[in-house]
Prior knowledge:
39% of the residues lie in helices and 22% in strands. Helix 1 (3-13) packs antiparallel against helix 2, helix 12 (318-336) runs parallel beside helix 13 (354-361) and helix 12 crosses helix 16 (434-445). The longest helix is centred in the middle third of the chain and has 19 residues, at 318-336.
Amino acid sequence: MNNIQEKYLKWLNSPKVSSKDKELLKNMSQKEIDDAFFKDVEFGTAGMRGLLGPGTNRLNEFSIKKASIGFAKYILETYPNAKEDGIVISHDNRHYSREFTLQTANIFNAFGIKAYIFDSLRPTPELSYAVRYKKAAGGVMITASHNPKEYNGYKVYDEQGCQLVPGKIKRLLEIIDTLGEELELEEPHDITRGETIVLGKDVDDTYVELVESISLHPELPKKGFKIVYTPQHGTSYVNALRVFNDFGYEFYPVKEQCTFDPDFSATLSPNPEEEKAYIEPIKLAKEIGAHIVTMTDPDGDRCGLAVLHNGEYVLMSGNQSAALLLDYILKTRQEKGTLAKNGVMYNTIVTSSLGKDIAEHYGVKTEQFLTGFKFIGDQIHHYELLGDGPTFEFGYEESYGCLIAPFVRDKDGIQAILMYSEMALYYHLQGKDLIEAYDDLEKRFGYHADITLNKSFPGMEGSQNMERIMNSFRANKILEFAHRKVVRVEDYLSSRGYEGDKEFELSLPKSNVIKMFFIDKSTLTIRPSGTEPKIKFYIGAVADSHEKANQVYLEIKAGLDEYMQK
């Protein structure tokens, strides 16, 4: 009997597994059994995320228990006053999110740790803020972000409200590895229990006040400027409502998508990266003649944008919208005399090169990190400790996440919708929409076609194929790809890179990522997702016109398709 079958039968026969889950187990095909038990669900770039259901490779009460026991032990080992300082827990709208929150709080209490919870769901950025506001020892966010309804997840935060970076999560994973099988775990019973405290309205109020303080032009007249907004059934509706009303914006919520529905019944996708997520918001926008459409994803850390341009609603990518916002913020701060002389902008190795060019124009330096906003949050803290580091001006990822003010240490969709709305209004009053403003930006800094391609590899076989593909890119030095010269390759797993015959070391942490730089300044980055069974291919095409940039993109994509068929 193989290991997968042994695990499956153990779950099927365990008195701890519910009759409902046992029925699901009995009805699984062999392929489903393999996928549910071939590994334990893992912590990736954004915490632990997976399909809901019975099995070791699933999110369920047992995987939540194991993660919570591990995190409790980690917190107690790491922070001397952890029991009294406590851990803040929040959750999104998904199936079992509230149940997992209460279970997690109960486990922390069993270890003598105080647990802070909200009275209902709250967005990820507010969880980050609440950890800092309460001076807690850490935080947990129960969410699967923008994934489909079948998923849930578990994100862990340090005392700075920042997701655990590799140096910290390494110890957590070591502790979890010592715990044994999920079904056998028990909480301690001989420790004075901690208490669970429901957070008050002051957390919401102070968070919203700080969000509203980032506005650069609150005085702009709002009359006649219309905004459509959707929270995609998620956590941000209440906070967004307050911010839009306080600033006097004429905004129209997509009411069907403002319910906290775990089945996402009124949307084809809760993911701002997918066009089908915009169908209902754009339908409403056409009815009322809105100038922009804004959306936050279910846990409220990402923000998507569509713009009325020449009678049609055009979607802006995360690279485009954030680059334009970066320019607006730096330009406005420069005009107001508030731009720091030692300013820094943070982004990632898969983000468009456009942002760096913009920052450089304003005398702001750029620092790049691996994918995951935790690296940005951690660097903000690093410079705070130094006391004389550069001043944070802006941080963003290509995947629709940005941070304007660092009272939060994760990407913040509420900060984003406020500033995107203000920026759109600013240009509207100048007779421009955001697409026209972005075209002006590219005229200044060059044309970019930054497109992410996703290829899914579900199940155990898919995991093996992903590993095979990544190994194939590492097998030999790549000097030419897509019929164009490769001038530099960076392999973050080996922490090595090369330019022709010259080799060098990389300073960022190890990660399963490969990045190629072409002679025309275009790039191709290959990265398996840290939260889903897919490989992401980031193509960054650069040229001196829209047409040429798109042609470069198509050429690199064709070369990638050809390579993948070998």
